Amino acid sequence: MQKSLLRSVLKAKRAEISHILEDYKPLLAQNTIPELLALLSITDKVAGYYPINSEFDCLFILKSLIKHGIEVSLPVVGEGKVMKFKAWNGDEALLGPGKFGVPIPICEGNFVDPDMILVPMLGFNNRGYRIGYGGAFYDNTLPHHPRAKTIGLAFKNQLCEEFQEEPHDVKLNSIITEEGVFPLL
């Protein structure tokens, strides 16, 4: 299946479940936060993202990590489709419009070299590769952080075995769904 058609199908699948995310938050908190904290045993800086277009909402996860003393950051699009991560304290009032209208931290703050990067996606395969919107922002950014653990956040219904990764696609270390860590091949 062509990637553009596949993206349309995956957007519809994600939209089917994202509207009930509020109902899933207790389950998500139960299944994702402990998994992330276990993966954070040697890390203290996590880059997340501000969810758009029915993406897996990780803001409540980021705010929980802040309560556990973890430094959190959000992406800011830079030159050449490479993102940098700016520190954020969890206060949504300190966010302003960034590129493409995605909120970014507008407060004074440093850019952070994260130990873990939470990655949104339209779909994923069981080998740990994701399909995004096609802008290649994460594929261009992740190689700049080779020591960071990369964790994809998705709903289980976003599994897409038809998706074949390409040479420029970056493999994620783990994928966490509403059911917990998804087993990768």
General description of the model:
- The structure is a single chain.
- The chain is an alpha/beta fold and 185 residues long.
- It has one domain: NagB/RpiA/CoA transferase-like (Rossmann fold, 3-Layer(aba) Sandwich), CATH 3.40.50.
- The protein has helices at 3-18, 21-39, 59-67, 137-141, and strands at 45-47, 71-77, 83-88, 95-97, 103-105, 111-112, 116-119, 123-124, 130-131, 149-153, 174-177, 180-182.
- The strands form three sheets. The chain has an eight-stranded mixed sheet. It has a two-stranded antiparallel sheet with strand order 4-5. The chain has a two-stranded antiparallel ribbon with strand order 8-9.
- Helix 2 packs across helix 3.
- The radius of gyration is 15 Å and the shape is globular.
- The mean pLDDT is 86.
- Substrate binds at residue 55.
- Its cofactor is Mg(2+).
Strands, helices and their partners?
Elements: H1 3-18, H2 21-39, E1 45-47, H3 59-67, E2 71-77, E3 83-88, E4 95-97, E5 103-105, E6 111-112, E7 116-119, E8 123-124, E9 130-131, H4 137-141, E10 149-153, E11 174-177, E12 180-182
Parallel strand pairs: 1-2, 1-7, 7-10, 10-11
Antiparallel strand pairs: 2-3, 3-6, 4-5, 8-9, 11-12
Radius of gyration: 15 Å
Query: Largest sheet, order of strands side by side?
Result: 6-3-2-1-7-10-11-12
What structural category arises from helix and sheet content?
alpha/beta
Number of strands: 12
Largest sheet features: 8 strands, mixed
State the helicity in percent bands: 25-40%
Distance between the ends: 22 Å
**CATH level 1 class label:** Alpha Beta
Q: Uncertain runs with pLDDT below 50, 5 residues or more?
A: none
Using the coordinates shown, work out and report the CATH topology.
Rossmann fold
Number of helices: 4
**Architecture, according to CATH?**
3-Layer(aba) Sandwich
Q: Identify the overall geometry.
A: globular
Element order: H for helix, E for strand: HHEHEEEEEEEEHEEE
Mean pLDDT: 86
- For CATH, the homologous superfamily is named as NagB/RpiA/CoA transferase-like
**Which band does the percent of strand residues land in?**
15-25%
Q: How many separate domains make up the residues?
A: 1
